[in-house]
C-alpha cells in the first residue's frame, strides 16, 4: 500500500500538500494512519504540469522524509495540477523506474493498491499492449502495467471508460488464469487538464480516498486527510470515480466493464 | 534511535543475525518493538573481520529491507566478528558517510543513542582531536565524533576506559556549555579480536541491550532479541560494559570518567 | 560498450583484478583504451562464487571509481571464480537491475557488446521465454535478455551450444524483422564450476578479449590487459569460445547456430 | 576539475544551458574539451532562483548524463538566475553534500579548481568560521569551505572583496603551513540578484571562463563555450571578476587581498 495526494486549481506550491500540512504526504511516508502499512519508504515521486504539455517528473528511491531535493523542489515549484506519491512496495523492486507517478506523453498516473496473483497475470496483460505501449514499459510494477493497459484501451479519448475496461480485463483474466480475483485500486491520473481519480476494490477494502477544496476554486484528492479538520474532508465512497475539471468536482459511479472489442483484439494478433 | 547486532565466535554467515531470524535486524528495520521509533530506514551498514586486520565495510542509504546487495552479501559472507546496524537518523543527513559502523584503521564502532544539544557541543568535541583523528572525520554525526574522541583518548590501548573518558568529557562539556546534560549510549566496538559493548544513559532510558550465546562458544549482542526464546536472551543492565573475548562473556560496571590528563591537553594547544 | 574481467583458479582477492593492477577494471572504468568509449561509468557489478552453489552479487549505479563499498569488498572477499563488470550503457537506463552480471539460480552472465535494432527485436525475443524465464527478467537490457534466451535454449546442459543458438536466433530474427543484422558479443558466463567466454561479432569489430594465467594454475579473462606485460596476455581471436575448467584453458571455434527444435517451439505456443 | 554554467537575464528554461546546446553542460560531463579531465561524472547540481529569496536546489551523485530527474527538471523549470555544475572530484567523496552549488540562506556558490595541500589547511580554515558558518558546513570539500570563508569575511555586503580576502587568507595560510601555494579558482556565486564570477590562479593555469549574451539582455558564464560559434564567446582573462547585474556585464580585475582586520580576529578567539 502507498499514499498519494493530487491537486488541481490555481497554481500552488507543491509543499502545500507535500511537506507543510500537519499530516502532509511526507508525514504519511512514515506515519500513515489509514493504511495497511504505516511506513511508505520505498521511494517517492512527483509529476507536475507547468508550461509544457507533458509533465515534469521527479522520482527517487530514498524515503521521502530524508530527501533534500524533494523538500527544496516542493518549496520552489508551483503548479496548477500535480500528482505526488510515496511508495510501500508490493510488486517490483525499489528503484526509480518503479516509483509512481508513471508518465506516458502528456498523461500521468499513480496508484495505491494491488492485484493478487500479479505474477501469473503479468504476461497476459503485457501481451495486450501494442508495440508502442509495450516498449514504453520500463519497470516491473502492476501499477505501471495497469496504466499502459488503460492507455491501450483508449484512455486518451475516454479516460474513465478505458480505466473501467482495463480493470475489467484484469479481473476477467484473474478468474480465467487463477480461478479467483482480488483487485484493490485507488488511483489518480491526468492529461494535464482534467484530474481523475478512482476508488474501487473487488472486496470491502478499497484503499481510502478523500477530497477537499483547496485555494481559490481548487481541490485536492488524498489517501488520507492532510489535517484534523474533519469537516473539510469528504470521503469518496468505494466504487466511485472523481473528475476535477473547470466545472469543479464531480463524483460518479465506477465499476469495471468488459469492452468486447478491446478484449477481442489483442495487440499481438493485429 | 537505531538498532544493531554484533557477533563474536566461530565464523557464521552474516545472515544468521541480519536476515534469517524471526526478528532479524532487517525485520527490526521496519518493525522494531523496543525502540522509540519502529522504523529504522535511514541507511544501514556492516563491518566484518576476515583475513585482514582491518574490517570490510558495506554501507548504503536505502532502507535495509529493500537492498538486494545486503541480502546477497549476508548470505555469502562468513565472519568470526562483525557489527551490523540499521539507522534512524537523529543528527546528520542520510548519506553513506553517516551510516554506522564507523571504521578507523582496525577499529570499528556503531552506536544507538543520542547526545542532547549536540549542535552546541560539536565544535568543542572536534577541537579535542589531533590532526590525524580530525581529518578522519567524514560525516556529521555525533556517533562518529564519539568514536574519534574515544580513539583520541586512548581506545587502542584501553578501550573501555577511553570510552568512559570520552563520555565523561562530553557530559562535562554539556554541563559547561548548555547547563544540562543528557546522553544515551548503547554502542559496540571492536579491534577485530575482542568485541566490546556499553549500555549507559544519564537518565533512566538507556537504549536496550541483550546478549545470547550463538553457535559453538560464540555470542551475539543485540538491541532487541532476535526471536521469542526469552530464556536465551540476557538483558544487559544500564551502566554496564560487555567484553566478548576468547575467555567468553564478561559484564562489568560502566560509568563515565573524567581523565584529567586527557582533558587538560586539548589537541589544538599542543 | 563496457569492460569486464573474470577469474577461475585458486581463491584470490577480488582486488587482484578489480583495483590493484596498473590497468585494473576500476582504472578501465574511466580510462579504457581499447573500447569505443573510454568512460564506463554507468554502474558496475560483481558476481562471485564461494561456499554456496549460487553466487553472491553486488551491483550499484555509481561509477566504480567512486564506490567505497566496492573497494572494501574487493579487498576482503576471496573467490575461486568471479565475474566483474563496469558498464557504459547502450540499452536500458542506469539502475541496479540493469547492471551486469546477471544471475539466475547458479548461473551468472556478463556482456560487452550490442544488438542493433534491439528495440524492434525485444518483444519477439521475450516471447521465446517460458514463464519461469520470463518472470526472471527484471531489467530492460539486451544483455539480460540474451542470457535468459540462452538459459531457455539449454545453457544449463549445453552452455556454449545454447549460447550459439541464442545468438543464431537473434541474428535470424533481426534479418526477418529489420532486414539487416549487427551483433557484437563478448561475454563471460559460469555455473560456478566452469568459466566460459565468447568473442564474436557479425562484422569485423568483435569487442576485444584477452586471457592470461594468474596465480597457481588459474586464469583470468579480460576486455583489456591489466598491465603492460604484453607477453603475458593472449588475444582471443574473434569467433572463439574459451572454456576454463579443471583441465585448464581451452579455446574453440564459436559460431552462431540455428537449432531447429528450439526455434520451432516458442514458449508461448506450448 | 569540474565544469559549470550560470545564467542571469530574462527567465529561460534550464535546459538551454544544461541539455540543449551542442556542447551543453551534460555533454561536457562526459566530453569536456578544455578541462584537465574529460569526464565530470562525480555528481551534479543546480541552484535556481524563482519566486522566493532563497534558491531551489537539486543535486545528485549520478553522472549528469544518466539522471532522468535532471533532464525532466531542466525541461520544466524556468529561471532568471541559475547556477549549474558537473563534478570531477578532487577533495571529498562522491555524495550529495559534496556536490555544488553550495547554498547558505540566499547565497549560492559553485567552483572549479583546487587548493593544493588542502588537507593541511582545512582545519585552520575552519577555525576562522564563527559558530553559525561552522555549523553550516555539511561536506568535506575545499569549495564549500571557501564559500563559507567568504561569507564569514563579509560576502553578503562586499561579495568580490570578501572573496578576494578569502583567497588571500588561504594563500597566506598555505605559505605559512606548507611553504608553498597553489590555488586555482574559477567560481560563480550569487545572492539571487547579481551574478558574480571569478577566474584566478596563482600559476598560469586558471581554469577557463567564457561569457556570452543570451536571450533578451541576458548573459551566460560557462567553463567552456556551449557551441562552436566562436564569435559569440568572450574568454574572460585570468585575474578577472565578472559582475552580471541590471547594468549588464562588467569585467574588473581580481586579485587576492589580505584584509588585516578579518585575519586578525579569528572566530575562535572572539
Automatic annotation (TrEMBL), chains A, B, C, D:
Keywords: Glutamine amidotransferase, Transferase. This is Class II glutamine amidotransferase. GO terms for molecular function: transferase activity. The keyword Ion transport does not apply. It comes from the Bacteria. Residues 2-270 form the Glutamine amidotransferase type-2 domain. CDD domains: YafJ (cd01908). Transmembrane segments: none annotated. It comes from Ciceribacter ferrooxidans.
